[in-house]
Write a structure and sequence with these properties.
By secondary structure, this protein is mostly helical. It has nine helices and no strands. It is flat, with a radius of gyration of 23 Å.
Amino acid sequence: MRLPWLKLIAALALVWLVAGSVIFFARRAKVTPEAVASYVAAHPVEGRTPAERAKIVEKLAGQMNQLAYEDRRGVRMGQGLDGFFRALTPEEQARFLDLTLPTGFKQMMEALNKMTPEKRQSFVTKALDDMKKREGERPPDEQLDANARKIMDQGFKTFYSEASAEVKMDVAPLIEQLQKNLQGRR
């Protein structure tokens, strides 16, 4: 009579052990901003073969795409990737942008769509102030211009396909200022 109960308890314990192991490894595998910074520091591209550089770019792009919007923004704003990005060839930069921009802009649109109108207005005001300060600035080289075009193209594509009508109305002043800034560059 005790044998079926012992088997049931053993099977239940085994299920919990497997579930606990899966949860443990899933948490350890989660990408964090610190993990991205550690990866960049441990894997400089200088002195590497093109194949090794490509693997590093692919892996870093994959890590960036796993970050939540705020974490990703923090990595970007903290300029943790600036040195890495500058060390890439123009083709590698383009590849990195191709791999990361769609996910990044999609996350940004989701965040804008979820914001309250007040928070979104604050975001727009802050971004407008920053853009007005930079009005008429010119990029330092032609490659930056190509990357800037790629970023804007992907951003507009995502904006027009993913943003709600309310977000499009709220962000319209940013689009107008961006157009002014671009005209100042030409």
